[in-house]
């Protein structure tokens, strides 16, 4: 039975690929009546693959070409495909990737009722790269280098949101602790709006040793803590400063800790400075801190706004007035660098789902 299932899946994949290839040679637009005929509910399961879901993650994964793709699954029910869905189909055809059209109920079940927007792909997993593959960077190469270090981030949606902010704001590298950290799952990719598919994420088994090594090389290791209360005794000899008062004048590692417990004592002891976000009102117990992904966005923006290539006030005003004008953009900041990471296009895709 297993052999028959394997043969059946392989045969169907060849038939689907041949079908689209013939359509392309006839000069037909992807989608339309040709695509609507490809309905399949009895999908053959595949092993050692994971199901990537969502329009942006799938589109960016195909563009980045870092994963092996077994099949593209497009929701049945529409006669034709337009925009980014049509691009997905063209890219899949160019790479001889079988395209299937299961009904929505089947996709819902396969995705465990995650928001898939009618697009899924069976792909090989992504893994964080070993830190040894990142290459050395000297502080003298660029005084405004910013690396984001994550210790024990476990919630996949937090992890994805942090990656999205890091990519948007121009973080140079992301390093995670291998122990007690969320892996690079499809949920992380969806929460990052696909940013995970185009970013290099590294990991290390010895986060404390990594931080100490970078400090010896001249990097500033800046940890993060919740807002200290006046009645709390100073629990650390490491200076604490507001992120708004932090001068970014040297290569910096920004270190964020676990959602519940924050930085471990060993990692915090390796920091030279602790940054915090000050509230604008008195807060009751339990509300003294922010969600880690929200805090990451605030901290990164407060630092990156000091970047020499960050748009000035006049440039920002011009960018808002004419966001499609290339001359209005700063050379170092391109919101449209990866379509799918901007809020406007995301709303359009959600409306299409």
TrEMBL record:
Belongs to the class IV-like SAM-binding methyltransferase superfamily. RNA methyltransferase TrmH family. Transmembrane segments: none annotated. One of its GO terms (molecular function) is rRNA (guanosine-2'-O-)-methyltransferase activity. It catalyses: guanosine(1145) in 16S rRNA + S-adenosyl-L-methionine = 2'-O-methylguanosine(1145) in 16S rRNA + S-adenosyl-L-homocysteine + H(+). It comes from Mandrillus leucophaeus. Pfam families: SpoU_methylase, SpoU_sub_bind. Residues 314-353 are annotated as: Disordered. It is found in: Mitochondrion matrix. This is rRNA methyltransferase 1, mitochondrial.
């Amino acid at each position: 039975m297993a052999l028959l299932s394997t043969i059946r899946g392989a045969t169907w994949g060849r038939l689907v690929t041949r079908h689209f290839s013939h359509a392309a040679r006839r000069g037909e637009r992807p989608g339309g009546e040709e695509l609507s005929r490809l309905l399949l509910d009895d999908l053959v399961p595949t092993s050692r693959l994971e199901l990537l879901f969502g329009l942006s993650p799938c589109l960016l994964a195909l563009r980045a070409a870092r994963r092996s793709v077994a099949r593209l699954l497009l929701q049945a029910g529409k006669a034709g495909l337009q925009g980014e869905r049509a691009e997905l189909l063209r890219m899949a055809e160019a790479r001889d990737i079988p395209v299937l059209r299961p009904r929505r109920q089947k996709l819902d079940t396969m995705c465990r009722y995650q928001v898939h927007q009618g697009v899924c792909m069976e792909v090989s997993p992504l893994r964080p790269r070993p830190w040894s593959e990142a290459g050395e960077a000297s502080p003298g190469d660029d005084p405004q280098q910013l690396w984001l270090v994550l210790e024990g981030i476990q919630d996949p949606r937090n992890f994805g949101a942090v990656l999205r902010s890091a990519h948007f704001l121009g973080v140079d590298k992301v390093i995670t602790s291998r122990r007690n950290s969320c892996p690079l799952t499809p949920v992380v990719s969806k929460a990052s709006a696909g940013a995970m598919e185009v970013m290099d994420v590294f990991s290390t088994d010895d986060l404390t040793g990594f931080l100490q090594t970078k400090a010896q090389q001249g990097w500033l290791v800046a940890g993060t803590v919740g807002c200290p209360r006046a009645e709390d005794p100073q629990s650390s000899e490491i200076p604490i400063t507001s992120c708004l008062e932090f001068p970014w004048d040297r290569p910096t590692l920004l270190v964020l800790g676990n959602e519940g417990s924050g930085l471990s004592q060993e990692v915090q002891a390796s920091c030279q400075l602790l940054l915090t976000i000050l509230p604008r009102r008195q807060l009751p117990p339990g509300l003294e801190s922010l969600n880690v992904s929200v805090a990451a966005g605030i901290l990164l923006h407060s630092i990156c706004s000091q970047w020499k290539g960050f748009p000035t006030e006049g440039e920002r005003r011009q960018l808002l007035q004419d966001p499609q004008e290339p001359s209005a953009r700063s050379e170092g900041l391109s919101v449209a660098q990866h379509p799918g990471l901007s809020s406007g296009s995301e709303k359009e895709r959600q409306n299409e789902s």
